[in-house]
């Protein structure tokens, strides 16, 4: 039953990702992104996909809240905050990878797959901490491709959220191409 609920949450995250790139205001994009990451985090937990992804998607919710705080206070995000989030993503990503049952040190396909969430989180950090909606969409597109590969391998229904994000982001990039000039 937990597996089914987890997959349903992955589908709900997919619905959020379908509209996320079309939101015109950065704060709206952050709220939608935080909601989607929260749903995906619970999805991974319920389908038993423990590892770097569950830690990273949980931290992404916090990062969205921090960025939302800066937008509402109209303050610039300090470089040290960006570096802290990047460092945390790398640390918890590696921790999530090495804490997996059956972890084998060294270069192997399982470790390479678990690096994808770390790469995605770096792209996500760039997306969240930029002020431009169009640049956010470009980083979001890159992030979605990385997570699409990971979610297909993980067997998570949230792979659809990445497909929707890719398609809707490409459309939004063209729809809003002249707004930030």
Describe the structure.
This protein is mainly α and 181 residues long. The chain has 7 helices and no strands. It has helices at 2-19, 26-46, 52-73, 79-98, 109-128, 133-154, 159-175. Helix 1 packs parallel to helix 7 and helix 2 (26-46) packs antiparallel against helix 3. The longest helix is centred in the middle third of the chain and has 22 residues, at 52-73. The radius of gyration is 16 Å and the shape is globular. 39% of the residues are buried.
What is the topology?
Elements: H1 2-19, H2 26-46, H3 52-73, H4 79-98, H5 109-128, H6 133-154, H7 159-175
Helix pairs in contact: 1-2, 1-7, 2-3, 3-4, 3-5, 4-5, 5-6, 6-7
Instruction: Characterize the main sheet.
Output: none
Number of helices: 7
Distance between the terminal alpha carbons, to the nearest Å? Answer: 50 Å
Poorly predicted sequence stretches spanning 5 or more consecutive residues: none
Mean pLDDT: 86
Beta-strand segment tally: 0
Share of helix, binned: over 70%
Question: Which features does this protein show?
Answer:
single chain; 181 residues; mainly alpha; 7 helices
């Amino acid at each position: 039953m937990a597996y089914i609920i987890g997959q349903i949450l992955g589908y709900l995250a997919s619905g959020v990702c379908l509209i996320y790139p079309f939101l015109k205001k950065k704060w709206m994009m952050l709220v939608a992104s935080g909601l989607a990451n929260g749903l995906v985090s619970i999805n991974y937990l319920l389908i038993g996909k423990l590892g770097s992804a569950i830690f990273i998607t949980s931290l992404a919710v916090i990062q969205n809240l921090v960025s939302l705080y800066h937008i509402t206070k109209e303050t610039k995000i300090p470089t040290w905050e960006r570096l802290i989030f990047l460092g945390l993503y790398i640390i918890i990503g590696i921790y999530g990878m090495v804490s997996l049952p059956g972890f084998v040190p060294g270069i192997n396909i399982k470790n390479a797959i678990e690096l994808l969430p770390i790469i995605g989180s770096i792209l996500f950090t760039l997306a969240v901490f930029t002020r431009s909606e169009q640049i956010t969409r470009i980083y979001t597109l890159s992030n979605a491709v990385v997570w699409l590969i990971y979610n297909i391998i993980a067997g998570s229904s949230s792979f659809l959220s990445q497909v929707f994000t890719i398609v809707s982001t490409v459309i939004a990039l063209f729809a809003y191409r002249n707004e930030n000039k």
